Amino acid sequence: MGQRHQIFVIACVRRKGETTGQRRCVAAYHHQWCYGLTALYCLSRFLRLASQPENSLMIRRDIASVQGNWGEVPQVATEVKIRKECYVPCPFIAYLMQLAWNVNLDDVPVYVAGTTFTNSVLDARMQSSGAANNDGITIVDVTDPANASYCFNKICGPPLTAEDYVRKYYPRIADSVPLDDDQSEDADVATEHAVVQTIAALEPFPLMSIDSLVEAWPQDYTRARDTMVAAGTYVSVTVSPDESLPATPAVSIPPLSAQPAVHSLTDISLRQAVLHAVNEGNHEPIQDSLSTPGQREVILSTLCDISPLPPAGSKLLDLAIGREQLPDVLDLSGINLSLSAILGRIGTMSGMLYKLDLSGNDRVTVHDLSNVISAAPRMRELIIFDCPLIADEDMYGLLASSPESIYALEFIGHSAFFRRARDKDPACPYVPAFTCVVYESMRQPLTISLPYFTPSRLLRSIYTLLKSMADTKTASLAMLLQHETGQTIDPTLAGLSFSGSQMFTSTAVLHAAFTTWYAESASITDAIRVAQLKREPDPSGLRADTQRITLIPQMSTSFDGWLLLMEPTRAVGGRFAIARKRRNGASADQPPAATPDPGLIEMSAASDFEVFSLDEFVVALKAEGRPAPPAEDVAALARVIEIAYPAEQGDCRLDPAGVAKFLNEVALRSMVIGQSIRIRRE
Fold it and tell me: pTM to 2 decimals?
């Protein structure tokens, strides 16, 4: 049942032992109900999400991590017995596909489809014709994500433009029919207007060639190309790069050339000159050497070893790096500075540092991070991709042992937080700082767990989630009033009300709410201001190029950290709580309880939890040492919570007993639907 459609993202990647890559599938996704305009809307949203600069960089990292090992399935160590998983070599790209094809929080009503990422993601090694399909497929080439190409396809056929595909569903109406706002009541004219607008949204993106399809799936598309050649419609396009790719992946920004193992006399003299210049505080005699081939690397290598690095050395370091730096950004990626040199460079920024990039540094360790963070109290973004001495497990250990050390960070760029999403079987590798659980009777519980957060960003995410819920409740109440007073039901209200009933069928809505940064509306106050501009709904995702995806969340059932528990509300009903496990249950000399095995849920009791109002929650966050959110944001979120879950309806706000009952229902429901969860009873 459904209008089944698959999406494939391809890129030029290498197998093990290859020196030249070819286009291969790096992410594949299934959509059960995708056809017509919806297929165009979702593609447009994906292409714009992919073009957002930070997202584009993450796509490049994803692709680089596959170079030289495409098709090799890594062995995943886990204590949870999980069904055999499909091959997902590029988890960020696959996650972006879910956010494009299964949710759009910028549309009105909100668009939500599918169930879980786990149910929808496909094996990237499959043929494009290998899944159940009765609509066609979408293919995107992100070899260069800044210049992505696309095509639709009826499977094993020639590439189709957006117009070729959508006109199969919506034939062009007579040219004599004007498309103006005065005729919006005519359904055919309104549909044609929407079709034309949606086709136009995809015009900036080039059509993929048949050669790209043949390269990715020769078995599926060679015959189609032969047919095009015979028909005279084939145009040859060279799609593979001519140059050989490096034998090892280069995930970070390429480092500067390494210093030779054996130094020449010239190099030794230059190193001595650099040391003298730095000690004397005068780097001008060295500047001319930066433009001499080979000497820049020697200067940089020398500076990397100076500890501590004085101001003159920091200035010379900037010149040697040769990068323009914003006043609050420090990009040291690919440069092996020592910790003291890093701290020295941070010290020259007068406490203004907001973003620090240490990617590719093979000297910095996880133990150094606390010193780095302490030296930059205003820093909010720390990027440490591809630092070999900081493993994923090191970051998880930091979260467990010293979570307070990262309370001020809004973004941590590390592979530990960009692993494949698992939202059906709990297999969370970290102790969560925050978990949101949405549960409706007879539906699969939806759970998302975050490794870290700042209060301001978290409240913004909760607002994003609850604002849509509050809007649907307001629409439902207005529609109920129309019915009771004998008025004609407003179809717009009916659409909003219905969207509320479908909003929490998919984990995509939680993923979008809690992992998206909005450049134009970073705070709740900004979001309200933007909404007051009365901008049109955005079904094609035209504003998605301002939305940065900050991590790939996991699913934890340990219920550690803060909890947001929700039962969706219609016109009436629903349940809501902000809670956490009690912290005073054990004596001071009692060792901490062992963390439950992944996938293990304990039956809960009321005494296990404490419940917080929003104001109490904010006070508790500040008491933990987290930065306080803006007071106006707290007030705005409180208003939205009151609409969605009125305090006067006392049963809407859960008490500790209600929290325990809610989580026990979640555990039992998870068992019924076959999740790999065991229940432990004392």
Answer: 0.89
From CA 454, how far away is CA 98, in angstroms rounded? Answer: 25
Distance CA 570, CA 512 (A): 21
585 has pLDDT over 90: no
Cα(281)–Cα(266) distance, rounded to whole angstroms?
22
Instruction: Write down the domain spans for the chain.
Output: 5-231, 265-417, 434-680
Per-residue buried b or exposed e for 158-193, using 16+ beta carbons within 10 Å of the residue's own CB: bbbbbbbbbeeebeeeeeeeebeeeeeeeeebeebb
Whether 286 contacts 273, CB under 8 Å: yes
Q: Residue 412: which of 425, 431, 399, 426 has the closest Cα? A: 399
The 3-state DSSP class for residue 354 equals coil
- Domain 265-417: CATH class, spelled out: alpha beta
Sign (positive/negative) of CA torsion 437, 438, 444, 450? negative
The single-letter code of the amino acid at 95 is: Y
434 Cβ neighbours under 8 A, 6+ residues apart: 449, 450, 453, 458, 561, 562, 563, 564
What is the C-alpha separation between 27 and 128, in angstroms, rounded? 11
DSSP secondary structure, 563-608, as one string: EEEEE--SSS--EEEEEEE-SSSS-TTSPPPPPPPTTEEEPP-GGG
**The token pair that represents 219 in the structure block:** 């078995």
Asked if residue 283 lies in contact with residue 319, where contact means CB atoms within 8 angstroms, the answer is: yes
Which amino acid does the sequence have at 399? L
Judged by average pLDDT, the poorest of 51-60, 311-320, 329-338 is 311-320
